[in-house]
Design goal:
Elements: E1 11-12, E2 21-22, H1 26-33, E3 40-43, E4 49-52, H2 55-63, E5 68-69, H3 93-102, H4 107-112, H5 114-129, E6 133-135, H6 136-141, H7 143-153, H8 160-171, H9 182-205, H10 213-217, E7 221-222, E8 225-226, H11 229-260, H12 262-270, H13 275-285, E9 290-295, E10 299-301, E11 304-306, E12 311-315, H14 316-320, H15 356-373, E13 378-379, E14 384-387, E15 391-393, E16 397-399
Parallel strand pairs: 1-3, 4-12
Antiparallel strand pairs: 2-14, 3-4, 5-9, 6-16, 7-8, 9-12, 10-11, 13-16, 14-15
């Protein structure tokens, strides 16, 4: 599809993998897209793709799974080599995999881990409190949720540094750093090799107790037949990326906001009941995941003619910051009520994030324990925001 074929739709050039830029960077770019008198844009980047910019359209697209397939979730990769299960599956396969994983992330199970998670958060904060300064991203926001994730998966904490190197190459390289996606593909291969060897080790142990997800995965079946190892590897790859990246990004966004808005910080410290409100607002204003879909057929959607095979970006940041749904939408508001509309940071429809309960709990406990030991702090320098499909701060230097 060429720009000349687009009717009634502004055309932009949306660079999907820009160089890191001072915060708020990409968030501000997507805010500016709303200045166009249209909820739909066409980007000339890569092979070309739609960008939907308001809450209502993004919500409709995420729920209209018969038109927008999840088999592609990156706008610049319409024929992906890697299949991340279950995120990149449509029904009915998606439902079967989701049912296998759901038991690990129920509200009851997540709540049962709260005391353990609180102790861990307190321990991590205690390890940095006397320094007087730290890089929140590397010293806290990554360490805390990643430790929880590795325990849940049954993976060694000693390899966290290596895991982050692989995860960075898989999700965060810019085109200048990896023009042919060679490092990205190599990282995916190394992660799959690691999980292949880990599955072999678990089988050799012949331990019937399913104490972690990797061990439990060995007993997963569909219609009485064991799940194929290749599919297991792709499922573990998806969990790997989600567990190491998303909560860490949101925690860093939260602490950046609190460092630059001392009145909000003081209110939350004085009234801990506000921490869940703060978390919801940070999730709404600063969603880290920007997902994509691929059209399954020709159709009219949001007032434009979509063709089979078209790629479309459904930026959750645009949905959460939509002023038509959220008054004063760019502001984290501790007095906001959910009656104004719910954010889409965890998605919507059948692909709503399974780990939403866990993510919320991790963030609330982490912020509570941080502020028990470090209630006052300041930003040392403006951080850089990077991202393609997943946005996050490259670092966050705080001092106290």
């Amino acid at each position: 599809m060429t720009s000349a074929e687009i009717r009634g739709c502004p055309v932009v050039h949306d660079e999907t993998k820009p160089e890191p830029a001072p915060f708020p960077g990409l968030f501000a770019r997507f805010d500016a897209y709303r200045d166009h008198d249209s909820s739909v844009l066409w980007s000339t980047d890569a092979q070309g793709y739609w960008i939907f910019t308001d809450h209502a359209t993004i919500l409709e697209g995420l729920r209209q799974t018969d038109l927008w397939s999840s088999k592609v979730i990156t706008v610049t990769d319409p024929e992906p080599r890697m299949l991340w299960i279950p995120v990149m599956l449509d029904a009915p396969e998606h439902v079967r995999w989701r049912n296998l994983l759901a038991a690990w992330f129920t509200p009851r199970r997540v709540k049962s881990m709260a005391d353990e998670h609180r102790r861990l958060a307190a321990d991590v904060v205690a390890g940095i409190a006397d320094r007087g300064r730290c890089d929140v991203v590397s010293d806290f926001a990554r360490v805390y949720p990643s430790t929880i994730f590795l325990s849940l998966m049954g993976m060694p904490q000693s390899m966290l540094g290596q895991f982050y190197e692989w995860e960075h190459d898989l999700l965060h390289l810019t085109p200048a750093e990896d023009p042919g996606n060679e490092r990205r593909n190599a990282a995916g291969g190394r992660i799959q090799k690691y999980f292949r060897e880990l599955l072999a080790e678990r089988r050799a142990e012949a331990d019937a107790e399913a104490a972690d997800i990797v061990r439990a995965a060995l007993s997963w079946e569909f219609d009485g037949r064991p799940v194929d190892d290749a599919d297991l590897l792709n499922c573990l790859l998806l969990l790997f990326m989600a567990g190491l990246d998303t909560v860490a990004n949101e925690l860093a966004f939260a602490l950046h906001h609190l460092a630059t808005h001392p009145a909000d910080r003081e209110r939350c410290v004085a009234n801990p009941d506000l921490w869940p409100v703060l978390v919801e607002e940070v999730l709404r204003v600063y969603p880290s995941v920007q997902t994509a879909r691929k059209a399954t057929r020709d159709a009219e959607f949001a007032g434009v003619q979509v063709r089979q095979g078209d790629m479309a970006l459904f930026p959750l940041a645009a949905a959460g910051r939509d002023p038509k749904v959220f008054a004063d939408s760019l502001r984290v508001d501790l007095d906001r009520t959910t009656a104004e509309g719910r954010h889409l940071t965890f998605g919507s429809g059948p692909h709503h994030c399974l780990g939403a309960h866990l993510a919320r709990q991790e963030m609330v406990l982490a912020l509570e324990e941080w502020h028990r030991r470090i209630p006052t702090y300041r930003l040392r320098e403006t951080p850089l925001l990077e991202g393609a499909q997943v946005w996050g701060l490259t670092g966050l230097e705080l001092q106290w």
